[in-house]
Amino acid sequence: MFFHIVLERNMQLHPRHFGRNLCRHLVSKLMKDVEGTCNGRHGFVVVITSVDSIGKGLIRDGTGFVTFPVKYQCVVFRPFKGEILEAVVTMVNKMGFFAKVGPVQIFVSNHVSSL
To answer: In its keyword annotation, does this UniProt entry include Transcription (predicted)?
Structure first.
């Protein structure tokens, strides 16, 4: 359900952020861009716990933007089929009910299929 993993991402930073607060701007942009997003391979990124390394920047031709490779640790939420989750029921109808588990909305049908 919840995993603590290491991920990498290339971050682009505008030249106006260059200076002594460069790392702070880069980490702030990383958190804004990544936290709360869904990745099909890893699941929903809940929170970034730490930034392990920020590599050397590469200047993009013609734009002035610099691309930095960033390695960070984060907590992700990835539900699996057959997993039991605690959910909040949001709507009930004659076909079944809808529930919310963190960022995921699920539907549980009244119809039972036999294998």
So the answer is: yes
